[in-house]
Structure formats: structure tokens, C-alpha cells
User: What shape does this take?
Amino acid sequence: MKEGGLYMKIGIIGTGNMGKIIIEALIESRAISPSNLMITNRTVKKAEEIKERFQTVNVFHSNEEVIHSSDLLFICVKPHDVFKIIQENKNSFSIEKCVVSITSPVSVHQLQSVLSCSCARFIPSITNRALSGVSLLTYGSQCSDQWKNVLSELAGKISTPVLIDENVTRVASDIVSCGPAFFSYLTQRFIDAAVEVTEIDKETATILASEMLVGLGDLLKKDIYTLPTLQEKVCVKGGVTGIGIGVMEKELGDVFQQLFKGTQEKFEDDIAKTTSQFGV
Assistant: This one.
């Protein structure tokens, strides 16, 4: 690997939804040349479909080949499959490499318990596909400064990277990674209610709601308003917006508190399973 990771080889094990997003974002941001990407998937056809679009990407038929051919490894599989991949290829993770988990239940501490190379965690968001949004980074205590710099630079090409502590991993991931799905669901309910209660058609309501969200994002991104000041600007005392917010305050109740409790409980179950695998 050259200084700054300029000519490094990046391996992606797992080309499902998030693995594919990382691949597409890295290539389209020009963070890396397709020819420096080594990819594989349990169903190799999925990896080959990516090669149809980016022809110089290197597709391999085994995890071992990808590991041997790469400097930086992103393991983009389900949480309970990470340990198996590491154990089956333990001797291939030489000390100069860096291994990155993209799943919250597998901690950098767990990776370091079985690997001698640099370890980190990178939690992406679907918004990274648009070279936007946030990605979450956590470095292991044995992760070299060089790899920290490389990962920070790569993440910065496709997102706003935020360094987080292990103890806020789940809630941070809920906001950054799960958040787009949560708010897409709320927006769809918003649209469906508008269609049900009024004479607007679904296509028009969808266009209006979608463009509203884009505009809201621009306002926040340009620091024109904060969330509280934006609400103040729109919500005129005694006006329609105030009536709507009053209804939301009454009807939503503690839905978001319950949401975070539910995701935390699932997280604890997942951690228990990965702990039984790694032993830590």
C-alpha cells in the first residue's frame, strides 16, 4: 500500500445491499479505481452483476482469494457470519492489512480478539449512495494511524464521517443507517393519509412530499435554519401548522422512545450471539 492508500487494493466480502452501496459509492466518487476493487459474494452471480457495470472490477470465487489480494477488507455480511469468515481464513489476515466490519453487533474489540492486523468498524447509510449523509467510524486500539487516515479519507469521499464510541453504536446506527427507512415509512404514511382524507391523488402527493424533503435537507445542509428555528418560522401561532403539530404531539405519544427501546433489545440479542462466537 502506498502512502495515503493511493494504490491500495480494497476487498469487499459480501455484495448484498450495503456491500453494493459501498462499491458504487467508492467508484462513483472516484475514491478508488474499479480495477483496485476485489469482490466476492456467497452467490457469485451477484458480484458478477456488479462487474457487468464496472468491467474492470475483479470478481473472485472465494473469500480467501479476496483477502490475499487486498490491503483493506470490508466484511459486508450478516453479523453472525463474520466470525466464520474470519476463522476460516485466519491465517490470511496478515498484520499489515486492515479489516473493517460494517455491522454494529460486531465490535472492534471482538475483531481484535482474533486478529493481529488493524481493525475498524464502518457503519454506512443508504444516503452514502448519493455521496451524502453520515458514516460512522470506530477504530480499534491496535489500528494504525496510517489506516485511520486512509479510512477517514475514504469515508469522507462518500459521506460525512463521524467518529463514535462503542457505547452509542446502536443509537447512532438507528439515526444514520436505519433513519432513512424510518422516515421513509413516516413520509409514506403522511402521503397515504393525505390521499385518504382529501382529493389529492397519490402521484401528486408523492411528488410534493419528496420535493419538500429535498428542500428541507437543503435548508439544513446550508445552515439556513436549525430544526427548532425552522419549525418556529413555519408554525404561526393559531395557524394551520400549529394545529397539525398539536395533533402530532397528541397522537405520536412515546412512539420514538418505544422505537429505540425495540432496536436496543434486538441489538442486545445480536451482541449475545456474537459474544458467544468470539468469546468476548
Observations:
- Confidence is low (pLDDT under 50) at residues 1-6.
- The chain has two domains: 3-164, 172-259.
- The domain at 3-164 is CATH 3.40.50.720 (Rossmann fold).
